[in-house]
Amino acid sequence: MSSLPEHNDFAAMYNLEITHAPDAGGHFGRFGGRFAAETLMQPLKEIEEAFFDAWNDDAFHAERLALLENYVGRATPLYHAERLSKQNGGAQIYLKREDLTHTGAHKINNTIGQGLLARRMGKKHVIAETGAGQHGVATATVAAMFGMSCDIYMGREDMARQMPNVLRMRLLGANVIPVDSGTATLKDAVNEALRNWVATCEDTFYIFGTAAGPHPYPLLVRQFHTVIGQEARAQILKQAGRLPDVAVACVGGGSNAMGLLHPFRDDASVKLVAVEAAGYGLTTGKHAASLAAGKAGILHGNLTYLLEDDEGQVQGTHSISAGLDYPGIGPELAFMLEQGRLTLDAATDAEAMTALQTLTRSEGIIPALESSHALAAGARIAKAMQPDQIVIINLSGRGDKDMDSVFKHMGWLEDAS
Amino acid sequence: MSKRLADVFVRCKAENRAALVGYLTAGDPDVTSSRELLLALADNCDILEIGMPFSDPMADGPVIQAASERALAAGAHIDDVFALTRAVRDAHPEIGIVLMGYANVPYAMGFETFAEKASSAGADAVLIVDIPPEEGHICDAALKKHNLDRILLLSPTSPDDRIKLACENGSGFIYYVSLTGITGADMGNMESIRSKVAHIQALSARASNHMPVCVGFGVKTPEQATQVAQFADGVVVGSHFVSRIAENSDHDSMRSAMLTAANHMRQALNSGVSGDNI
């Protein structure tokens, strides 16, 4: 990629080359692809073309990076959590502070990119699915900023446990549509958004929230989130003078994980760890660990690991965090796992809740329950390492939205449900 | 093309009418009743589409979603789908049978096993909504080996290059989705459907693999079926039949409502006149 507008120490931090691209059909090895209904094939192709056209356009990046700097608040800090590291023992823990972005989670990196793409394609209406509500809030936010109308599909179950985000979306002017079908969680919200998009694709842009779905979404979402890992890589080199030994992220669909991990992929010395939601425990069947406990299958437009029964019926999942409560996983993570470039880990509901409190008390940072899974596993990994080693954990979002669940867990609020 | 499917269209052409293609989800509302309902519908159809229930039917509207949910809740398994297919085949040696569903069910079984079982149960073709021609590499060889046609969809958003792709990679017939939307939604403008179907028929005629074109996704009334039959080789009716199951509480009334609905559709196509007159 050629030069970007002058000013720009900020822009210089980012490498715009697309590495580890999928094949022309969007396949990462045997995973990925475009398993979509015929009606969506042409709209998906148009998005793919618009994406590559934009990605090769300096003006697109100039506007995108300016928004990331001045609206989102990037670069986010990489914070050396010294007290946590000391208490935990073992390696030094650094936190990538995506919780400090505008709207409070990494999701906005992607919605800025896709929102610009929607505008470029002349679409005036956007739709999205959401689980924890962070992607919904980030989509509603850019819709407000770009002056677009916005519908968000959200499982009724998730609406109940993430009410503050539902209200934020409404305040931002979005129409939040409850989804009752199936298990009334994230996978069903995706189904419903796809059903709507099939009918509206001519004037509607579907802002997909994670690095999954039909091609080009896994690639596009990854590229818009690589700012996370590219910043972290530059920041750790500056702060510690060396690369980390381990990089850790939680995975639901895989957007924050691809964002942090992808830029370290060619650094062979950096171990890449994805932390799945183990719910009540991997042996209980009540979890959302698609990579650890699933098998290859086809859902939501891509071939990937799925939690399903013997006959291919997709199973309900459980996680305390709505954002990880998804039976699939980004196809590229499935590919990286089979390639041996990804290490799997998992954290239970209880471990995540403990990690949330530990970080809050040791560093004065209240993390999202999703990110708390990465913190739980990351601290466990760090503990077994040496003090001169480094673990970077993606603190993908802040915990405000989860306060009701946490207060109930602490016994400070009566459980109304 | 399967001999049986080809014969269906030849027969209909000789009778100067469009083929009636009826859809029901296998196992809805339970396997025993489903058998009676499928047989009742088959009595009046030239081609029967037997839906394979799936947990996440992304291209279906509320009516067929509910059918999948009822079937799965009542314990329908993929082997029941094959057994129901066998039952229809035994009763109707000449009817065309298409197994319709989503990729993950046959993928979980393995396409080779799936195709073998589907074929030996008496199916003629397979329609997988979320396997476009580009992803045919995962199923085409297995289907071909077991002499199963692969029905491909086209839609109002399909440009000429995709129409050609479907003509080159599909077999049996082309399923034209009459609307940009999910099953059971309101039909689009009849004139634009007519002109798109004519265009597909023209492109298909130029392809080496000339296929009939059936139109579906929004056909709910005998009047609509009659109109579509003026220009299409076949008319697909799904949600309209499935609704007869949801609207009735006992099996006898479901079956008699199904027979009545199927009869009306059949008469509409036979007479070629507006449903107002029947």
Write the layout of secondary structure elements.
The complex is a heterodimer of chains A (417) and B (278).
Chain A: H1 9-12, E1 27-28, E2 31-35, H2 38-55, H3 58-72, E3 78-80, H4 82-88, E4 92-97, H5 107-120, E5 125-130, H6 134-146, E6 149-155, H7 156-161, H8 163-171, E7 175-179, H9 186-200, E8 204-206, H10 217-240, E9 246-250, H11 255-261, E10 271-279, H12 290-293, E11 295-299, E12 301-306, H13 331-338, E13 343-348, H14 349-363, H15 369-383, E14 390-395, H16 403-410
Parallel strand pairs in A: 4-14, 5-6, 5-8, 6-7, 9-10, 9-14, 10-13
Antiparallel strand pairs in A: 1-2, 2-12, 3-4, 11-12
Helix pairs in contact in A: 3-5, 4-14, 5-6, 5-10, 6-8, 10-11, 14-15
Chain B: H1 3-14, E1 19-25, H2 31-42, E2 47-51, H3 62-73, H4 78-91, E3 96-101, H5 104-109, H6 111-121, E4 125-128, H7 140-145, E5 149-150, E6 152-154, H8 160-169, E7 174-177, H9 190-206, E8 213-216, H10 222-229, E9 234-237, H11 239-247, H12 251-271
Helix pairs in contact in B: 2-4, 2-12, 3-11, 4-6, 10-12, 11-12
Q: Label the CATH architecture of chain B.
A: Alpha-Beta Barrel
Strand order of the largest sheet of chain B: 5-4-3-2-1-9-8-7-6
Query: Average pLDDT value of chain A?
Result: 95
Please, what is the CATH homologous superfamily of chain B?
Aldolase class I
The major beta sheet of chain A can be summarized as: 6 strands, mixed
Give the class of chain A from helix and strand content and strand pairing.
alpha/beta
State the major sheet of chain B. Answer: 9 strands, parallel
User: According to CATH, what is the class of chain B?
Assistant: Alpha Beta
What letter string, H or E per element, gives the SSE order of chain B? Answer: HEHEHHEHHEHEEHEHEHEHH
User: Overall 3D geometry of chain B?
Assistant: globular
